[in-house]
Amino acid sequence: MYGIPLQTDRIVQYGRFDQAASRELFIRHALIAGEWESPHAFVAHNHAQIDTVLEMEARERRTNLLVDDDVLTAWFAQRIPDDITTVRHFDRWWRDEKNRRPQLLDLSLDDLIDPASAAPDPEAFPQVWEYGDLGLPLDYEFDPASPSDGVAIDLPLHGLDRIDPSVFEWHVPGLRRELVTELIRSMPKSYRKLFAPVPDTAQQVLARIEPEDGGLLLNLRRELQRIGGVPIPVDAFDLDSLPAHLRPTFRIIDDDGNEVVSGTDLPLLKDQVQEETRSAVDTTAHELEASGLMTWGFGELPRIVEVAGTDHTMRAFPALIDEGESVGIRLLATPGEQELAMWQGTVRLLLLNLPTPGTLLRPLLDPEAKAALRIGPHADQTEWVADCLGCALGEIIDAAGGPAWDAVGFDMLLRRAKDELHSLVTRVAGDSLELLEALQDAERAFNRLDDDRHGEVIADIGNQVASLVYPGFLTQIGSERIGDVRRYLLAIEKRIERLPQEPGRDTANMATIHDLEAELDRISAALPDEPRLMDAAWMIQELRVSLFAQSIGTRGKVSEVRVRRLLYDIEMG
Q: Which of 22, 189, 492, 533 is the most exposed place for a label (fewest CB within 10 A)?
């Protein structure tokens, strides 16, 4: 009174002074914002419906789908009496009204979705990724500041080995155009400028390719090559520069629904899971495992078994293991480890059941051969004999279609080895001694080079020899390549002889080879599983012969153009 407060901090009912404003505040704060504790069923229902719309917004990366508070305020204002201004008033009214009209205050999706916005497309942003017989759940988050922004895909641990990572290059349909646009923009400017305006090019590309055609990156490169009229390298796209939401997050889930590992690099995650499997296999005794075996007396060897991990079961891959004086059966973590071990274990078990063939090679070891063995990669004659036997038996196993997985298949291999090993190992040993003699001649010529004048040539030849001749190389390359490696060594000797007369030509040829080897390394990094890379590596060796020692001859027609053509074909798919 007269500017002096008579009483302060007293709470009063605002509805007694402004009923309309009080009613609106109740609707906005209680019914819409949920700033009350209420047991009413419609409250939980409405929150769930709003969460559904917010999930739709997160999937489609938009913020205009949910109607604003003014629309919801008007919706509730049409349904509750004018004198409802407090929770007590509301509870008293709703106690009777819900019996007459229980769904009166239940919001539907149509009530919550703004009709002025484009309707959500469930096919563009699915909740489940269908992959064969697998249904892979998807989670969406729309928060550019969050490390989990974008799409998360749940992958089952037990189905992981049959999931092709390239499938997910296409992402969900609703993000595909943006993804292709950003991939084109990630290219070096010299390529990118060919496809301006980029969004139009992305739309044009997507009209011609689809997931059934294979991986997105491979098909995108092919289509851009058609449009631009230029070859596109395999590493032209900078995947690291893509926005986070265009790179899916993969969560590996075990049988109990627990997350084992997560990340954006699916091949790396598969390797990490294999490490976990390897650890579990190493610490788990399995009824299949055995040691000290001398014969095949254990029935059929399964390709895959289930082993119990810490929290879940995992797949393991049984294989024969070379124990030196015997073989064993071990569970391995990956099919790749199984394949290598099975081959080596089969060779050892064959040797254990064959007459000792080492004496067959003694007549070949004259003084010159023994001298060649001393400069070769083998530690002693025993190691050389083992390499020759491995090479010969490898030819037998390969001709039979691979290692045996049961007693019948092994007996067939053993009979074949008894019939063919004598002649095969004698031939392999003779060919390998000729190769080692060529290595000895190349070594003598190599030692005459002046380090100060020919340092680059010395380094180049040293690297070449190390890639060709190493412990166990006979078994590794196979019998059919022994003669090729011998020619490559003879070519080295010829190259050294010509070097003083044509140093400039040698430098130019070496630059050509190094350029091709760098190109091969680049493509190998991008396409590590491409089988034709080995063909390219051998062709580069043949080109060395053609450039440095033409008189020796090559296997088929070879030239720099042919090598580059093969590398191009590999890169272009």
A: 189
